[in-house]
Design a protein that fits this description.
This protein has a single domain, classed as 4-Layer Sandwich (Metallo-beta-lactamase, Chain A). 37% of the residues are buried. With 262 residues, the protein is α/β, with parallel strands linked by helices. The chain contains 4 helices and 13 strands.
Length: 262
């Protein structure tokens, strides 16, 4: 658990917020399986319990009362991210948060499946009118029985030459906040924060200050595709890629040239 209010941010931040990707020095954190999959149960209103499952990178699944809400099913979320989904939330248009082809296929396969997102994403799915709902900062709605509040308007700045896109953060049942690619501070105190951990727009100091300001009772890393451990259990310097996926100039082993012997 990341305890931030009234105390310095712990030195073990990486073990505490990314422990399900990189084993903590004193063993696996509570709720983390040996495979690295984070699953935990959180209290919700009315005496119910929400099960949170952390999927690949930015994607999470929240389940209660037989329904499933999936947030940010992107290209690194895993092949089963959309399986059984009752409703979808998408924070923004970047492919690590939105696998448009997979989302289209899921919507085509299930006529009852609906998606809530911002106007930019909705414009890309305009042919699915009636299934895709536009929301913005300050909105509140219900999706598959989950109470959703919307916070934030813009993606964090990557570089002044790169246009800033819309980004929509979602607070679910007053229990879990997914900020997407931004350091949005929700107006209400949220106990569980999905904390951005590894992004081209993010500095470690900013991540720490953000966690302090939100002051959740617990935080778990999102944006962690580049933090996957290697075979020896060490954090990888780059995300492992399948054969043929690596970019020009990067060897098949996925490591930069200066990491290889010789």
């Amino acid at each position: 658990m990341v305890k931030t209010q009234g105390a310095p941010f712990p030195a073990s931040i990486w073990a505490e917020t990314s422990g399900y990707r990189r084993c903590a020095l004193d063993g696996l954190p509570a709720g983390v399986s040996a495979s690295g999959m984070l699953r935990l149960e959180l209290p919700a209103g009315g005496g119910t319990t929400v099960r949170l499952t952390k999927l690949g990178h930015a994607c999470v699944r929240l389940e209660k009362d037989g329904v499933s809400l999936v947030i940010d099913p992107g290209v690194w979320s895993g092949p089963s991210a959309l399986t059984g989904a009752t409703a979808l939330l998408v924070t923004h248009e970047h492919p690590d948060h939105l696998d448009a082809d997979a989302v289209r296929a899921a919507l085509a396969a299930d006529p009852g499946l609906q998606l809530w997102t911002n106007a930019s994403v909705a414009a890309q799915l305009a042919d699915l009118e009636g299934r895709v709902h536009v929301v913005s900062h300050g909105d509140a709605f219900t999706a598959a029985g989950f109470a959703i509040h919307v916070y934030g308007q813009e993606h964090a700045l990557i570089h002044r030459d790169i246009p800033v896109v819309r980004n929509t953060g979602f607070a679910v049942d007053g229990e879990v906040f997914h900020p997407g690619d931004a350091l949005t501070v929700p107006e209400d105190r949220i106990p569980t924060l999905l904390l951005p951990a590894n992004a081209p727009w993010l500095k470690a100091g900013e991540m720490i200050d953000y966690a302090r300001e939100v002051a959740p009772r617990r935080a778990y890393a999102e944006l962690d595709a580049g933090l996957e451990p290697d075979a020896a259990g060490r954090g990888s310097r780059v995300r492992r890629r399948s054969a043929g996926e690596h970019p020009p100039g990067v060897p098949d082993d996925g490591l930069p040239r200066d990491d290889r012997a010789g």
